[in-house]
Design goal:
With 77 residues, the chain is an all-alpha fold. The protein is 44% helix and 0% strand.
């Protein structure tokens, strides 16, 4: 049985928060609107690659956890 992608399980509000965090970390997700677009996916992939996470382009658990740490990399966090 095929499981839905992790980003499909998130609410629009959850995606919007992730977009805000991505933007705060310097990764442009496009419009901050809670819609998971190709721009959002590209920002997620770039974030994952930068922070040594598995690069899937999905807002999986480990990616969301890393985003929620709220550490600004420009401040040495």
């Amino acid at each position: 049985m095929e499981h839905p992608a992790p980003d499909r399980l998130l609410s629009r509000g959850d995606i919007q928060i992730a977009e805000q965090h991505l933007q705060g970390f310097g990764f442009d997700p496009g419009s901050i609107d809670g819609i998971f677009t190709a721009e959002t996916q590209a920002a997620v992939r770039a974030f994952q690659a930068h922070y040594g996470l598995p690069v899937s382009g999905l807002l999986d658990y480990s990616t969301r956890e890393e985003l929620q740490l709220g550490l600004d990399p420009r401040c040495g966090g």
